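REQUEST FORM: STRUCTURE PREDICTION
Request ID: SP-0412
Submitted by: Lab K.M.
Chain count: 1
Length (residues): 511
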Amino acid sequence: MSTARLSYLRAAFTTLLCLALLAVGLLMLGMSNHLDHDEHQFIASAAMLARRGLLPYRDYPYFHMPNLIFVYAVLFRMSDHLLLAARAFSIVCGAATAGVLATMVYRACQGLEPRMRRNAAFLAGGALIAQPLFARTSGRAWNHDLPVLLTLLAFGAILRARTQARPGWLQLASGALVGLAIGTRLTFAPAALAFLVILAASPPGKKIAGLVRFSLGAVIALLPTWWLLAIAPRQFIFGNFLYPALNTRYHREAGFEKAMTVGGKAAYVVTDVLAHPATLLLFILFVVALTVVWRRRGDSPHPQRFAVGSLLLLIACLLVGTFAPTPLFLVYFYAPVPFAILLIAFAAADGRPLTRRPVLSCIAVAMIGIGLFAHQGVRHPSQLARWAPLEVHRVGEEVRDICPPGPVLTLSPIFPLEGGRDIYRQLVASPFVIRAGARMDEGDEELYHLMDEQDWPELFDLHPPSGVLTGLERNLDVELSGLARARCYDENRTMCLGHGLLIQTRPPACK
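STATUS: Completed
RESULT:
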């Protein structure tokens, strides 16, 4: 066997081994993460579509863009393990993001020898996975992994289009990918501006055509969003544009002080986002890369200068979406991370001192090693029974066995849905719908399908639940459980289900 072929097989084997380890590691991470209360609305809304054909906005309140509902609904038609299926999809998206990032870095380093290109690609993928922001965000059943992957693919397509004689389909695909990302999470809308500016920098003869193709792709990809906007316009606008203001008001009334003002948001970056050494190292590398590119601006043209400038613009636009919500949370800062890593790689891709010095690789390796400490609490594959989605499904089966037929009243809807039980459509987006309903008048509550604590007694009297599931939403659940006891939901039939949950059902005399 020739030396070249042996080298190729060795590289292929190493790549496959790394991909296998990546898949196992991300699976363990995603399945070990505890259940977050933000996951309930994404799971419940998709279950309502898959099982009852109910649509967001029109049939119940929903406070996000709709694309993920359709994806999860397809998965839920194939599996009754709802959280398991949804998280598996997010894990695939997270792994694909790391793989796409590594591939783009490998191509960017085409001026280096093959071994250095492979090392750069592996370091880039490892740096992403080891980031605490990745560990905190990726692999859960919510709308973060998918739009990041779609935007990264869109950026790769737009760069590749610049080198093609016929870039039309790549520009169309890039627009479609950005449209899908926006239809999944609205905070990715500013990224479309970055892509339009990148296309506007095309040669004069191709500029208009590129802008038209990109815009057409985005409009087509947003068709599900246009459709839902058309059938429930006021509810759609409320869920995506007006609700965030109510959520901010809720946090102010609750005395939440962190990241509530412009100054507070700036302080949050320092005290929370950059508090972890691995994230701080990535930020330092990012600043160094920008400094190096700036200092070389008078030299011969940097082979990746356009890509670096485009990435800087895209990151700036993504940060607009990151800082838009009030208050801020760590998961919002995940979106720019893959693009920051990519910018560092592009800045170092010309083979000049930044890449020849071993210090860069040492810093990257140190960053990965430090960052891996963020993956604490990961379950070993042998602890399959303790993985969060399987524990949640077992609790759902207990709810199914305890409760008679009928809807379960709860602010934690994943559990009854995992057991095949029904929930009240008004509470699909629990507990966020209660936050909104408590700050609206009765007319608006009815228009937007909202409810608050004042509506619970009427619900008990007119549409009594088969059971009341409480335990995770503190004061709201205390009030709900008290109402159940007042309406003869016998405490002697209250069962502890784990996860701090209680299920109350009515004795036969009251049915």
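NOTES: The first strand starts at residue 408 and ends at 410.
Reviewed by: T.R.
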